Amino acid sequence: MSVKLHIKKGDTVYVNAGDSKGQQGKVLKVDAAKQRAIVEGVNICKKATKPNAKNPQGGIVEQEAPIHVSNLQVIDPKSGKPTKVGRKLNADGKLVRYAKKSGEEIK
């Protein structure tokens, strides 16, 4: 069973805890079952890889590691600052996410 999360792929998020605290990035992938997300340029780790077709030399590759969604906050589209996310019905009767700080709808 997966839980409904406050972040989606493509959101710009702020990291509020951990080694990457204070950084911002775009969400590349969300794993709802594990409640983790991969954010572009955040939580970088080094990984040793064997030679393959993509990387014939092999060696050490830097890549983004998953980060728990509780350590992420969506960036408000209006102010550009981190905000909590709420859900409400819009005029069309669709459930949409909105920024609690500004009331702006999150696309």
What does this structure look like?
This protein has 107 residues and is mainly β. The protein folds into 2 domains: 1-75, Roll (SH3 type barrels); 81-107. Helices cover 0% and strands 43% of the residues. It has no helices and 10 strands. It has strands spanning 12-15, 24-31, 36-39, 44-49, 59-64, 67-68, 72-75, 82-83, 85-89, 95-99. The chain has a 6-stranded antiparallel β-sheet with strand order 6-3-2-1-7-8, with no helix packed on it. A two-stranded antiparallel sheet has the order 4-5. Strand 2 and strand 3 form a beta hairpin. The mean pLDDT is 93.
Please give a handful of descriptors for the protein shown:
43% strand; mainly beta; SH3 type barrels; two-stranded antiparallel ribbon; 6-stranded antiparallel beta sheet; 2 domains; 0% helix; 107 residues
